[in-house]
Amino acid sequence: MAELKLPELAEGVNEAVVSFWHFKEGDTVKEGDEVVEMATDKAAFNVPSKTAGTLKKIAANEGDTVKVGSVLAVIE
Fold it and tell me: Which own/partner pairs from 39-47 qualify as long-range (CB within 8 Å, at least 24 positions apart)?
């Protein structure tokens, strides 16, 4: 099981908003797939999966604000 977390962002930016999930719970993801789009006041970016597996749980919904290091999803 692997946790997909919000990575470190630009200096002084410590949170981002979940814009759009490219996958839903139960979908299969490959390593490198862009799983979720995030946005800050300066930029939008995608968070890739670091592992292949099944997206078991989405921990942050679209529109949620999450802090750096927070779990976005669980991939098994």
Answer: 40/9, 40/10, 40/13, 40/15, 40/16, 42/10, 42/13, 43/10, 44/19, 46/22, 47/4, 47/6, 47/7, 47/72
Domains of the chain: 2-75 (2.40.50.100)
- What letters, b where the CB count within 10 A reaches 16 and e where it falls short, cover 34-57? ebbbbeeeeeebebebeeeeebee
Q: pLDDT by residue (tens digit) across 28-74?
A: 999 999 999 999 998 999 999 999 999 999 999 999 999 999 999 99
Give the C-alpha separation, 66 to 15, whole Å: 5
Reported as a single tens digit per residue, the pLDDT across 26-37 is 999 999 999 999
